[in-house]
Amino acid sequence: MEHVLSNPIVMKAKNLFDAVQPVVYKDGKVFFLDQTALPTSTEWVEIDSVEACRSAVRGLVVRGAPAIGIAAAFGMVVAARGYAGDDMAGFLSHMKNASDRLATARPTAVNLVWALRRVYARLDAACSVGEAKDAALREALLIQKEDEEICRSIGVHGLSLLRDGMTILTHCNAGALATSCYGTALAPVYVARERGMNIKVFADETRPLLQGSRLTAYELLSSGVDVTLITDSMAAYVMGKGLIDACIVGCDRVAANGDAANKIGTYGVALIAKAHNIPFYVACPLSTIDPDTPTGGDIVIEERDASEVVSFMGKASAPGGVKALNPAFDVTPSSLISAIITEKGVLRPPYSF
Ligand code: MRU
Question: Residue 69 is inside which H or E element, if any?
């Protein structure tokens, strides 16, 4: 796996949301929490170049659609700093190259390109290179701050679909680690806690890279939420046993017709939920909805290295030479989605964006 990082540093976290803050801007420097090291080690990696940012996004040091967007925005800040001259045309061309490079880090989450476009638009509007560099930083910080407010609002709307004591099932990690704060799918759980309510969570382990066990179980456990870890193959069992009241997942891109791409395995969860008459909700910011992608079939699905499938926690788990497939995401058809929870409210089918 491509994974080139510079200047690893370790900082001590003061509280939970500090401990699960994926992107940190501190003393003029950009740091990503290394999510590949969680849950056993809490390390931040300094991002000092566009290539370091791109590699970190590709290598899942920072991951989850909103966090990828925030990371890319700060990648643009780092790129801007790296330009020494004061010629605006040269600066814009340098930044266009940086943006193009970052845009190719991962193909599925639309938030990546969305954030890059937001930062670039600020540069374009500036009158000097110095002004543009300041504008890039302001925009990156704004995207990060807005994401926190958006996610909390998703949590408030999502909680309106739940009742105290309910149990949800989630897949992958769409929690605080995947956003600026609160997460999307997990935001209703955190808002419930703020209000003294108790929503329990079943977390799918999420093969091949275990975002469910390494990240979701970690952040929920750390914040005192009642979380039960299951392997992906247990989802039908627990739904069949009546242990789940609703499924809530995050999303990397919603097409214009409401089809939604999320971590591989999500489609299966939606089918199982349908078979058991359990509501299946997708939670995402409006920035994840892409009206330019007509249907789920038009969403580019990232194919990752087969080594992730033939190994488990760094050890071979299959015979050498076996063929393996590794799509990182799948598409849940809109017909299986009971509602899409956004910061502006709960959207019900038929979807049309
Ligand atoms: O490959 P990952 O870990 O980036 O996949 C993440 C997901 O599929 C999340 O569910 C999605 O990005 C939403 S995060 C709020």
Answer: helix 65-81
Whole-angstrom distance, CA of residue 319 vs CA of residue 215? 28
Rg, C-alpha atoms of the chain? 20
Confirm or reject: Cβ of 180 under 6 Å from ligand 1.
Answer: no
Concatenated DSSP letters of 96-143: HHHHHHHHTS-SS-HHHHHHHHHHHHHHHT-SSHHHHHHHHHHHHHHH
- Name the token pair of 322: 């076996």
Whole-structure pTM value = 0.94
pLDDT of residue 17: 57
Tokens of 213: 């066990």
pLDDT value, residue 2: 31
| Side chain identity, residue 291 | P
CA angle 157, 163, 165 (to 5 degrees): 130
What does the pLDDT read at residue 211?
Answer: 98
At residue 251, the pLDDT reads: 98
For 197-216, write each residue's pLDDT tens digit: 999 999 999 999 999 999 99
- Kindly give the number of the ligand 1 atom that is closest to the alpha carbon of 68: 4
Q: Collect the ranges in the chain with pLDDT lower than 70.
A: 1-19
Q: What are phi and psi of 9, to 5 degrees?
A: -135, 155
Q: Is the CB of 64 under 6 A from ligand 1?
A: yes
Residue 70: phi and psi, rounded to 5, are: -65, -45
| Helix and strand element counts for the chain (H, E) | 10, 16
Atom in ligand 1 nearest the alpha carbon of residue 302: 1
Is any atom of ligand 1 closer than 6 Å to the C-beta of 172? Answer: yes
Burial of 245 (0-12, 13-18, 19+ CB in 10 A): middle
